[in-house]
Amino acid sequence: MKVELGGTGLEVTRVGFGGIPIQRLGMGEAAEVVGAALEQGIDFIDTARGYSDSEEKIGRVLSSFGGRVTVATKSFARTRDDMLRDIETSLRNLGVGHIDLYQCHNIAGDDQLETVLGPGGAMEALTEARDQGIIGHIGITGHKPWIVAEAIRRFPFETVQVPFNIIETAAANELLPLAREKRIGTIAMKPVAGGAVRNVLLNLRFILTSGMDVVIPGMDQVFQVEENLSVLDGLSPLSVSEMEVLLREKEDLGDGFCRRCEYCMPCPQGLNISFLHLIGAYYFRYGLRDWAWERLQGLEKKYGDCVRCGECVSKCPYDLNTPAIFAELGRRIAEDRKKN
Ligand code: SF4
Ligand code: SF4
Description:
The protein is an alpha/beta fold. 44% of the residues lie in helices and 12% in strands. An eight-stranded parallel beta sheet has the order 3-4-5-6-7-8-9-10. A two-stranded antiparallel sheet has the order 1-2. Strand 5, helix 3 (80-94) and strand 6 form a beta-alpha-beta unit. Helix 2 (54-64) crosses helix 3 (80-94). It binds iron/sulfur cluster (SF4) (2 copies).
């Protein structure tokens, strides 16, 4: 099942491939997962300069894959010169001469928007690259849909990419109707909220029947490809009882949980921040206490090693107070181990 990404003329599968999790895999394993996705029909891949070696891992597979794949990547660069450099690096990493969609990555506030749109800003580089045919289209990504909405009022971006899932539906208020009106393609990132949402298929169906063109679940195992693609078979809106299942999950999760985007990394003290959040979720939310405890013991840096420098707090798009959460998790886990 394909869709045109807004007015770009790019026809892509509605389930695309999100390139974050392959960072955790070795080169060979990543090639297997990306290869499986392409072989099973996924023809839209999203990655980023900021996802460590994700572009390179994808590039290796693209070079040996004969089929047509739409590739999207993005950069945190805010100035023209930095963006020109990043486009060059992306082309080299991906092993291509042309990138279909290049996005301005995670515009988080009005000040950043001013910089990229202003003189000497990143949009100058992206526009030049598009005029020269080096990139096909220009998109924008961000975790705050109201900022992205402001961006598309001020610049003719061709796609938007924002978080959308049962927990994060803010994009539906203003951004999605505006994008539809302007024929801008809509891409849903974080479809399972960094692994926090457990009913993956219900959630993907929810997203694709809520006005999003494409959803890009991250995949780091081959079986996930077939599973995620199965959502396209007879795609239909959720029934009332299915919706109730997701809403119950939303209520259980609340707002203060880590989506594993890893924007806060690296921690100067060497804590694996997103994994420590995950361990806490497994311990208390999912009740896998012994499993989580064993993983925690395998880590060199634990909750107590956080020195509360606050660096991760300022980088987190969800405003998570990680040092406070870690202090609380450390205390609760220690208390629980004493009891049991
Ligand atoms: S507050 Fe703690 S977890 Fe966050 S960056 Fe500083 S030391 Fe690392
Ligand atoms: S703490 Fe925030 S920035 Fe870090 S991985 Fe989690 S959601 Fe992302």
